[in-house]
Amino acid sequence: MGIRFAKLFPVYIGLYAASLTFSMLLRHDFQPSPITLRDFPSKLAVALTVKMLVFVASREWLRRHRHTSLQDMLHVVVTASINLTLLFGLYFISGGPLTPGRSTLIIDAVLSVVGVMGLRAGLRLWSRREGSLSRKRPLERTLVFANEKTAAKMCRMLSSTRSNLKVVGIYDVTCHAQQFLVQGVPLMGPPESLEQAARVVRASVVLVPASTPGRQLRDIFNACAPVNLEVRMMPLVEELVEGRFKLGPRDIEISDLLRREPNQLDMASICGYVTNQTVLVTGAAGSIGSELCRQLRALKPARLILLDQSESGIFGVEQEFLQKPVPEVELDYVIADICDEATIHQVIGDLRPDLIFHAAAYKHVPLMEHNPREAVRNNIIGTKTVADAALAHGVKRFVLISTDKAVRPSSLMGSTKLMAERCIHALHGRGETEFLAVRFGNVLNSAGSVVPTFRAQIQAGGPITVTHPDMERYFMTIPEAVQLVLQAGAIGQSGDVLILDMGEPVKIVDLAKDMILLSGLRFPEDIDIAFSGIRPGEKLREELFYETENGSERIHDKIFRCVPPATPYATLMTQVAGLRKQLHAPPQQLKVALKEAVQVWVDDFGQVDKQQSRAA
């Protein structure tokens, strides 16, 4: 039974003996008769034998005292009840001589519960005291911003960690009565403001639950920053399970300020087309592609094929997955160029995927303006190569990851993504493969995007460079975008363009100011913002819909479905062949050829707009 049993067994014998002895004395007003004193040792021995047999049978000695919970307290009451029942049984069977009297046993049951609970509570308080003494940093007075129920849970979580946060108050916006204590700390709320409440309890930290909506969190953050209140967050259960954060408070991140309501996913439909299937992800080392692979692997396909031309990128994903294996999923790591027709046909022909997510693309707008050949080659010809191979080898479903920059494109990158949409739409209906595209805006923290760029500029001491004070973009976190891509792939139909609801656009300059505050600095005293001017190919504001798509059907809380105009296969093949011939022409000549090709489809959307307006 081990050392722990050897330590606790005599402690409980002593506690039970003291309880029964005191109960006997209490029963006789501390003046027991000589006969009672003479018979008591034998009765005590019987009672202790029964109690310690129950102690062993109930495995009381295995329950950790420093983590005592309500369930443990209930166990103590149940154990005392069992002891009382057994001793009562012996009393009635023997007629009285084997055990103390009934009154003594009842008093003893109550004292035993009090004694064991006191022992547990004392050891728990002692362990917390040890934890506080072992902290190297002083305790920070903390105000918890949450409703009463959530705040109580957060306080319990903090007490189970070696955090240096000391909760001195709870601020609940739904509470208007301030006479209550929750776990020993005052419960506050309106009409006092958050800043006033923090001042009353002399808090230096405001702790919020990770479920706080981004809009509310932004308000809290903006209220706390001017009065030097630090805002921290208790992580989500999902973040703890995935290992992204440890149990305990963490700093606020920019994604927290932009968080929206959680996605309501139809897991049955998603699992229906992923679980036990063979899935191929192109661009698997990229920001979207790697997150796709993480979420797909959790859905347990029979086989997951990760394809990318970046050797170091694939190696990084491989090492990550080796740390957290999922034995049910067979993994294939493929280094290949999506424009290599022979290799792509061989990979798809040999591995036979049922489902392809095509996330491989060059995405940086200004960079692609100077590299039109690679943009056309990768985003258009590469997409057509993978789509053709999917059709030729009977892949069930092909999902293209598209972008809002494909709507009335002003950039070369956006033009190539519109052509990619047209490529898969032209293949729709030409075989058994279902082709659909998922279109959405920017994702936070993707490689080379605005957030890591701003972060690096802040670390370098600034200034942060923003192209224009009115520049706006739609933003979504990478995990949320991938969840919705999976949902869209499950409920979309062949030929659809599925558009994710990105919420309200965010001004880039506001994003920059938020990141300055999150870094513990002030704008413009510590870090300034410099406006550099709109770069080649950029729009001031992005769009998600063509006019003909504004009335799109909402097929999910955050997904719209639109059916674009038909794409004649012959026309598209002629355009792609023409672009292929222009790959080695001067860059300006290739740009002109691409612009002419794209204009056909933009005009096509426009013609439908006119037809619909005339019909109306």
Topology:
Blueprint: H1 3-27, H2 34-57, H3 70-94, H4 102-134, E1 140-145, H5 148-159, E2 165-171, E3 181-182, E4 185-188, H6 194-200, E5 205-209, H7 214-224, E6 230-234, H8 237-241, E7 250-251, H9 254-257, H10 267-274, E8 278-282, H11 287-298, E9 303-308, H12 311-323, E10 330-335, H13 341-351, E11 355-358, H14 365-369, H15 372-392, E12 397-403, H16 412-427, E13 434-440, E14 442-443, H17 450-459, E15 464-466, E16 472-473, E17 475-476, H18 478-491, E18 497-500, E19 506-507, H19 508-518, E20 529-531, E21 553-556, E22 559-562, H20 569-581, H21 587-615
Parallel strand pairs: 1-2, 1-5, 2-4, 5-6, 8-9, 8-11, 9-10, 11-12, 12-13, 13-18, 14-17, 15-20
Antiparallel strand pairs: 3-4, 6-7, 16-19, 18-22, 21-22
Name the assembly state. Answer: single chain
Q: Could you give the count of β-strands?
A: 22
Distance between the termini: 83 Å
Radius of gyration: 34 Å
- Beta-strand percent range: 5-15%
CATH fold-level topology of the largest domain: Rossmann fold
The share of residues in helices is 40-55%
Q: What composes the largest sheet?
A: 9 strands, mixed
Provide the low-confidence segments as ranges: 237-247, 607-616
| Overall CATH architecture of the largest domain | 3-Layer(aba) Sandwich
What number of domains? 3
In spatial order, strands of the major sheet run 10-9-8-11-12-13-18-22-21
CATH class of the largest domain: Alpha Beta
Q: How many separate helices?
A: 21
Q: Describe the global form.
A: elongated
**CATH superfamily placement of the largest domain:** NAD(P)-binding Rossmann-like Domain
